[in-house]
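Lay summary. Proteins are chains of building blocks that fold into shapes, and those shapes determine what they do. In this project we predict the shape from the chain. Here is one chain we studied, written as its sequence of building blocks.
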Amino acid sequence: MKRTFEQLELGELLSECIADALLGGVATVKIARSGSVVDEQDAEATTYVQRVSLDDLVLDLAARDAGETTFIGNWYRLPIEFIENTYDVKPGSVPVSRDTHTGVRGQRRTSSIASGARNGDRIVDFGNLLDLYLPLHGQVATLTETYEVIRMEPWGGPARGPYVSLKFLDGPDQMFPVALVATVEDLEGAINEMYRKLSEQAMNQKDVYAAPLASHKDSETVLNAADGTIVNVVNTSQIMPLKFRGPDQGVTAIATMWRQQCLELMGGLQQLAAMGPQADTATQEKLLATTASSLVSGLQDHAVEFTARIMKQLTWYRWHDGKSVDTVQKVIANRSMTETFGPARNGYFSDYDVLLEPFSMQRKSPQERLNILTGIVQQLLIPMAPAMAQQGIQFNFAAYLDYVTKYSGGTELA
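And here is the predicted shape, written in a compact code that computers can read:
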């Protein structure tokens, strides 16, 4: 399965989904099998994992929970020629989609915000299709942009259907969750307006020096003097610096207060990023850090559960794949062993469970691995060396030095 995850670039997809859930409230992944979902022996069929953009998601918003959902699906684009060759449609009956920045219903797509609303020339004509999963009927359907049904067949995949969603903040009796960023959108807009106002005030600030007419010569001398030079003057006590306009202190205080409140609503981002203390005492700072960590821990739990459900869906397809043959090679006791896994399966898929530990999703640098290994040796193995020797167990220093050399990136010990 690890090889499958690497081929599907699952890590990058999960990062995009977490960003979707934070910014849009929900992230949805479609896991299905190309071709017929009921034909396990289809040699051309492949399992794919596809991130569903929020602009393309079709959701039953009338449902109060997942049990009441009557449909869920997504829009996607395929070449017109492929659609006409794959599905039973008349040539020219599928509308050509030329506007890549406007949805099927005419709404502006999120992609147009960064890339603009211009559409480039396309060599191949594309058409919009809609896949719908009907959980109450156990059916999957494909529709054209004009809502003509071109495919309807029983769903033969995992029991929960082809879609897996990630939600961080669920609203009561609502299928569409609350976006974490949306909770501070108004406050963030007000803060930007305040800082924009302060920036304009700072740009309009004027610093001038006023002097009586009697000190005109001294004023010109001081004005024309270069930095760090000594000039001869009679009296400079009457030359007074004056400031006009500039940032308002009241606006600065309000912007700072709102900014702090925004950080607190977002879970203490400065504590998580280690950007400096936010409290007057160490005890208060510890409480703030604990609160921030608890929020992130909750978000992490959602992300881990989301990843586990994706893995279970992929494992289901792997289990029911009637043509896959994998070769796994391992080195045990300096001996290379090769094991081949074919289509044969023992028992039923429901007999197995897929568990995902959150720590397995965190990457460790070579230095972190070396610190863990050194800690185990110093705190566990060395103190227990006499007891291990009585049982005939010897510590392999050569292997330990090999790992030290590997993780430290050096060759001196090799």
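What the prediction tells us: Residues 282-319 form the longest helix (38 residues).
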